[in-house]
Design a protein that fits this description.
Blueprint lengths: L5 E8 L2 E8 L6 E6 L9 H11 L4 E5 L4 H4 L2 H4 L2 H17 L7 E7 L1 H13 L3 E7 L17 E6 L3 H11 L6 E6 L9 H18 L2
Parallel strand pairs: 3-4, 3-5, 5-6, 6-7, 7-8
Antiparallel strand pairs: 1-2, 2-4
Helix pairs in contact: 1-7, 4-5
């Protein structure tokens, strides 16, 4: 059965149009904007699974392409963190102008390089961001602004993803907000086993349900 809450949207940002999938369950008090990692898109199976679990808690989700197809073909653009932040902020502003989303508390879920963009956007918006979750995030790329993040922030890292876990532990100490670091035992960077991704989704959904709305 088709998801009646699904709306395929086009988000105008920086003179380009970015494709997205917006779902807002009835009675939602919050909405999570997803920032995928380099080389991924709004169709990321992992992010879509996490989004589904979040929506089960009556929290809306927006998955969108941070880059156009042409931009995504350039390796350097995929790692242009300031550009990704501008796209994330642009999408947030777009949500603030929509009648059906303007009153919702906004949170960010970032994966890999997308996590640094999510944290930098949250730092920029201050108290306007309700919560942030990072999955296997390159949070170190946001180190310069981590002290400015006001939103409750959750880092989720795989126990076997040793380089990223080390970076997360260092960056976690720089946060000056409500925070938590959860390590999924034995999981690698992509949380490939179903039970690992289930753990990620439940942790994220709990965090957003608690802090949004």
């Amino acid at each position: 059965m088709a998801d009646k809450t699904l709306e395929s949207v086009t988000i105008p940002v920086d003179g380009v149009e970015l494709e997205g999938d917006l779902r807002v369950p009835a009675g939602a008090s919050g909405l999570v904007v997803f920032a995928h990692g380099s080389g991924s898109s709004r169709k990321s199976p992992r992010n879509n699974y996490v989004a589904e679990v979040i929506r089960d808690r009556t929290v809306g989700t927006l998955l969108f392409d941070l880059l156009t197809e042409q931009e995504d073909e350039t390796y350097e653009t995929r790692f242009d963190i300031p550009l990704l932040v501008e796209r994330l902020l642009g999408a947030t502003e777009w949500l603030r102008k929509r009648d059906d989303t303007k009153t919702l508390d906004i949170g960010y879920f970032g994966s890999s390089t997308g996590a640094s963009a999510a944290l930098l956007a949250a730092a920029e918006l201050g108290d306007e961001t309700g919560a942030v979750v990072s999955r296997g995030g390159r949070v170190d790329l946001a180190d310069a602004r981590l002290g400015d993040v006001r939103a409750p922030t959750l880092f989720i890292v795989g126990g076997a993803d040793e380089p990223v876990l080390s970076l997360n532990r260092d960056s976690f100490e720089r946060l000056d907000c409500e925070k938590s670091l959860e390590v999924i035992p034995g999981a690698g960077h992509l949380f490939e086993r179903p039970d690992e991704l289930e753990d990620v989704a439940e942790l994220a959904a709990d965090w957003f349900e608690t802090h949004l709305g």
